[in-house]
Amino acid sequence: MTRPGKSSIVHRLPFFYGWIIVVVATLGTIMTNPGQTPVVSIFIDRFIADLNLSRSLVSTLYLLGTLAGGLSLSFWGIQIDRRGTRTMMTLIAGLLGLACIYMGFVNNALMLGLGFVFLRMLGQGSLSLVSQTTINQWWVRRRGLVVGISGVAVSLLGLGLFPNMVHGLLERYGWRVTYPILGSALLLGMVPLAFLFVRDRPEDYGLKPDGDGSTQNSEDLPGAKPLEPPTASSAGFLSEEPAWTLGEAVRTQAFWAVGLAVGVSSMLGTGLYFHMVDIFHSRGLPPDVAAAVYIPIAITGALVRLTSGYMADRLPLRYLLAAAMGVLTTILLLATTLNSVPIALVYGVLLGLNGGLMSTVGGVIWADYFGRKHLGSIAGLAGSFGTIGSALGPLPLGLARDLTGAYDLALWIGAALPLFLLVANVVVGPPTRGRARAHEVTQ
Fold this sequence. Notes:
mainly alpha, Growth Hormone, Chain: A, 2 domains, globular, disordered C terminus
């Protein structure tokens, strides 16, 4: 039996400490932005001009950096399982801060390539992974809704506010100062928050996920069903939870069905965003229409993250994943017919719908399917599907444009991939050994 730790901050608060975890982990996810494509893309033209590099070379360096970052996620996931979320979030946030400071000193292609590796590995990859894992360790029964609430903040602040803030800093100070400013924010803000407030698991402090069965029960969220307090196993985890090892997980059809869906969604979505302006231009729509589409994307994404989080606690996750795949197929087909502003706005709504669904499902499905005990290593390996997919995403559409003069061929072929994975995930379902969701056992 794991001996409960003592922490005054965990036990003295008048509400379940998991809510503090949600706030800090959400901030951690937002602070991945220095390594995310929407923010990095703001710097690309400055890198090209100031370092006298070609666009193709910078694009290749970014692809290689993303691949290297994606392949490292399994290592970071194992470390999260071994050393705990508190230690690893503090370490990763600190390393990302140093990577941002390093970017201010880049003066050639090799240094830029190394910078891309650090940013993608630490920002897009491991800080996202440890932030999501932290939430999943503290929430089981209401996991979907809590991830959805977190996703709304990430969508509005991370996607809506952060890139605009960076753009303002870039215009005022230049890229050699802006990236170190972001690094300082991580070192002086995120690192102390992670060290002071993140805790590994509620069981370490005599609590249970969701506040169930303790004197610190959080108030029931709207629509949450009352449950009997779950029991803890000798290993400190809920006895109803599955406890797959990484080796066991990779031998299941469910791991590959979900992993490929995540990878394909990331690949096709990144490609669509990367070529957004030119896709619209090829259909006779001006750049300002492409920019305007981000408004329905952000609004729809925020709304869907919240509602899909609520549904994730009540519906089989494979059906939500299948819905996301169906929406993605529709998006790719619609992209071949973009010829008016109303269709473009519908296109934006569907992109937001797909992004919201994938954000929620991707945030909860690994813990729901395989449990929390080895979540870091399992989610770390699975996360490499998405990272590698995002690295490869722009290439097929770019090749189609160069070779045929249009995107249609790649869009039609691409549409078949999520359609296949829609069927695969409905047929395969969750892994067959153990229980997929603790609340299904206790209801």
